[in-house]
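Page 37, continued from 36.
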């Protein structure tokens, strides 16, 4: 909730222009998306469509049901009609301020995927491991187990062919001057991938490794993706991306640039 309507329009105009210029130089395909507030979703969709940009559209939350007596909520069916591709759910702020639970996230994920969109599930451990500089296997497993409790309910209610994106950020590092180290992020995200493959790919659940992507949602800056790319597929930017040039520079790092 950092932008108003004029700022959103100006931001998209500049971002779309810079992205269009950068696109021919990218060496790998990448899904690039923006997630505005609900009021500006339709205007942002129009800006993207009219400019013929390949930017994708996201939403910051959703209700689990398509229709019903849920005053003030937003239907996943309506989001799909607007052209939304990704729907962010389970953000630490939603959990902390609005009491959102893992069950709520799972129900929303089901509604999102049923309407042909991709749930972007925010996950992260609350407590900072004591042995953070010398993580043992048990330390890593404790973190993964905490994150898995946030992930598994959603996977259980989604179709096996439905895509899911996990946005990982340790809750203990949010807003802190000392974020999680690249080494820490890689250890945890690689372990999350192994857990996913063990339970949903190398099993009778019938999922594929490609059906789940992991983004890192922590403090991001130039050069970060290169340090953590062994564990993640991309980045999920917050205020760092409020400057269009910084956003585009990050896209070039993730997708590669000629």
């Amino acid at each position: 909730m950092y932008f108003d309507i004029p700022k959103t329009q100006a931001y998209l105009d500049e971002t779309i222009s810079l992205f269009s210029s950068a696109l021919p130089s990218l060496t790998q395909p990448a899904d690039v998306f923006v997630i505005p507030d609900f009021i500006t979703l339709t205007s942002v969709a129009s800006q993207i469509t009219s400019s013929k940009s390949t930017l994708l559209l996201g939403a910051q939350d959703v209700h689990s049901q398509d229709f019903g007596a849920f005053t003030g909520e937003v239907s996943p069916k309506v989001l799909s009609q607007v052209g939304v591709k990704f729907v962010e759910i389970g953000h630490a702020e939603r959990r902390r301020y609005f009491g959102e639970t893992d069950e709520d996230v799972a129900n929303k994920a089901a509604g999102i995927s049923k309407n042909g969109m991709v749930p972007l599930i925010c996950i992260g451990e609350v407590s900072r491991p004591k042995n953070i500089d010398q993580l043992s296997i048990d330390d890593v497993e404790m973190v993964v187990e905490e994150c898995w409790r946030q992930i598994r309910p959603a996977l259980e209610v989604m179709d096996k062919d439905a895509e899911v994106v996990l946005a990982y950020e340790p809750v203990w590092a949010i807003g802190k001057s000392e974020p999680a180290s690249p080494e820490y992020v890689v250890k945890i995200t690689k372990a999350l991938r192994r857990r996913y493959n063990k339970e949903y790919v190398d099993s009778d659940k019938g999922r594929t490794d490609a059906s789940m992507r992991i983004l890192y949602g922590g403090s991001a800056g130039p050069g970060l993706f290169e340090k953590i790319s062994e564990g993640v597929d991309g980045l999920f930017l917050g205020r760092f991306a409020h400057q269009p040039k910084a956003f585009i520079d990050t896209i070039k790092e993730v997708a590669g640039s000629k």
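The domain at 5-255 is CATH 3.20.20.70 (TIM Barrel). Flag for discussion at group meeting. The two ends are 35 Å apart (CA to CA).
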